[in-house]
Amino acid sequence: MGIEELVNAAGGSKQYFSEKKFEESIELQPELALATLETLRHLEDQPSEALRLEFFFYTNSAGKAKEFCQCLKKKNYSVEYSKSGAGKNLFVISGWTDKISMKDEIVIAWAKEMCELGFQYDCEFDGWGTTPDQ
Known about the structure:
4 strands; about 45% helix; 4 helices
């Protein structure tokens, strides 16, 4: 299903996450992931081998958010969506992964995958975080 078909099927008529923004976002993921991992390593005496990651996405319709949540649930992520306080027609999708290896290349690949998956559902990947005390 193409982006236009998905947008119309999800009850939205306007694309939220442009291809240009997607390309910019996916290009930034390695740098952002490495910076977050470096910060995390400074917080821990013994760096964790695997942690659950909290993630965030935005989109402009409840239908798109719902469809994307269903997709992420198939990956066994706990996920929900709600109306964002930041905008009139803005919805936030947030949740947690199962434990993921904290090796640089694995987290970078995961972040890129989240960008790509979000783009397929017209949802912008806004980033991730975690806590070492899991």
